[in-house]
Write a structure and sequence with these properties.
Elements (H helix, E strand, L loop, with lengths): L2 H16 L24 H4 L17 E4 L4 E5 L4 E10 H4 L22 H4 L5 E4 L10 H6 L6 E4 L1 H5 L1 H16 L1 E9 L7 E2 L4 E2 L3 E10 L2 E10 L11 E2 L1 H8 L9 H9 L9
Antiparallel strand pairs: 1-2, 2-3, 3-6, 4-5, 6-9, 7-8, 9-10, 10-11
The structure holds a DNA duplex (12 and 12 nucleotides).
Length: 277
DNA sequence: CGGAATGCGATG
DNA sequence: CATCGCATTCCG
């Protein structure tokens, strides 16, 4: 059984015992990809964001996509965590200094069940941001929206402030160095060995993936990272791999807007000198 | 070593 | 519920 199948199986087991009338967002499937599902670009971002949205994976018809000022997310109604969160981070954004509301909230754009703060409370697991709040200091509203549960996953506390944070620092460093970086990340749920949180059964991911795409002098480079949801320190370089390998694990078609003529070349290899790891 | 970034929880 | 401080970790 491959990883995608395992993901589907895990979600089915959980969904079948806990969900009732909740709309089925469905796990990712490579078969129902619509060619170019329209994503509404939040107006606040239109002025500063380039087209197309290179950070986005291919969108399946069954996915529940939410767009906020600073990020796009695919929400999973069975696991109560996102399938992925994607955004572009620019040099100017990294230099922001605004802060907003820091309380975790339900995403107002999502219909159906979401995680409760009580599910996480005293569980021993952090409410870990997918897009870090530090990447949204260019707008108080964008900052606050990062605290929606569409952007939150259960993370081991030491992992959150340790290994995972090094991937976030890497993103900001790339943005400063190259002017812009396209980022997508999310949870990996294989056999769900850590179980669920609280009475709403928020799925605890086994691991997390992240992928970076940059364009330097008209040439694209990409890299992927997968880290286990564990406290032990994990080295960035040792966790790095091609985007193709990440796609194998997460079942997504990443950087789908990247020109098809160069996509396979960009995603199959690692241009090591670009990443500083 | 200082500061940034993370999220928790005590306190009123 | 809002405010504040704390503990931890890592970057520069």
């Amino acid at each position: 059984m491959n990883n995608v199948a395992r993901l589907i199986a895990a979600i089915f087991i959980i969904g079948s015992c806990a969900c009732g009338s909740i709309p089925k967002a469905g796990p990712v499937s490579t078969q129902e990809v619509s060619p170019k599902k329209r994503i509404e670009i939040p107006s606040a971002k239109k002025a500063i964001k380039t087209q197309p949205r290179l950070e986005l994976p291919a969108i399946t018809d069954s996915e529940d996509i939410v767009t906020h000022i600073g990020f796009t997310a695919s929400y999973n109604h069975e696991t109560l965590i996102p399938n992925w969160v994607a955004y572009e981070l620019t040099r100017e954004e990294v230099n922001g200094s605004e802060k907003g509301d820091e309380s975790f909230q339900w995403d107002p754009d999502i219909k159906g069940r979401q995680a409760w703060r009580e599910d996480y409370a005293r569980s021993g697991w952090d409410k870990g941001h997918m897009i870090p709040r530090a990447d949204l200091k260019w707008s108080a509203k964008a900052y606050s929206e990062s605290f929606y549960f569409s952007n939150v996953c259960p993370q081991d506390p030491a992992f959150n402030t340790g290994s995972w944070r090094t991937t976030e620092s890497m993103g900001r460093r790339l943005a400063k160095q190259y002017g812009s970086v396209f980022i997508v990340c999310g949870p990996l749920v294989f056999d769900n060995k850590y179980g669920t949180l609280g009475e709403h059964k928020v799925v605890i991911p086994d691991a997390f993936f992240k992928a970076f795409l940059i364009c330097v002098n008209g040439e694209y480079s990409a890299i992927g990272i997968i880290m286990d949801n564990i406290p032990e320190k994990q080295n960035l370089k040792q966790c790095a791999m091609s985007v193709d390998e990440v796609e194998d694990k997460c079942g997504l078609d990443l950087f789908h807007d990247l020109d098809i003529s160069i996509q396979s070349a960009v995603e199959s290899r690692i241009n090591w000198k670009m990443w500083g790891i």
